[in-house]
Amino acid sequence: MSAQDEIIEEGSGNVFADLGFADPDTHLLKAQLVTRVAEAMQERKLTQIAAAKVTGSTQPELSRILRGQFRSVSVERLLAMLTRLGCKVDIVVRPQGRTTESAVIHFA
Q1: DSSP for residue 8
Q2: What is the pLDDT of residues 70-100, one digit of tens each?
Q3: Could you tell me if residue 98 is inside a domain?
Q4: Structural contact between residues 27 and 74, judged by C-beta atoms closer than 8 angstroms
Q5: What is the domain-level CATH number for residue 48?
Q6: What is the CB neighbour count within 10 angstroms for residue 53?
Q7: How many domains are contained in the chain?
Q8: Virtual CA dihedral for 1, 9, 18, 30, nearest 10 degrees?
Q9: Which of 96, 99, 86 is nearest to 107 (CA)?
Q10: Would the pTM count as exceeding 0.85?
C-alpha cells in the first residue's frame, strides 16, 4: 500500500470505541483512573510494592493494572486506590447541555 492509498480516519475521542471494545466509555474511564494511579505513585515516589501496601492490593495485581489489564477491576476499586494514594476525587454530574460530556471526574 502506498502513501496515496492510505485512508486516515478521524477518531471519536475514545480509542476504545474506535477499536470496537464492549462498553468503551467505562474502559476509557478506567484507563484515565489507572493513569492517575500511576501519576500519584510517581508523585509520591512509591515503588509498586509500597503502592500495593498503601492501596490494599498486591504487587502483581498492581503491576497488571498498570500494564492495562484492568478489565476485571471496578471503577470503585480504582477510586478507592486513588483516595488511599492521597488523591482527592470529585465526581460532578450535571444535566447535559451543549457539551457532549454527560459526567466529569476531576482529579486534584
Answers
A1: -
A2: 999 999 999 999 999 999 988 888 787 766 5
A3: yes
A4: no
A5: 1.10.260.40
A6: 15
A7: 1
A8: 110
A9: 86
A10: no
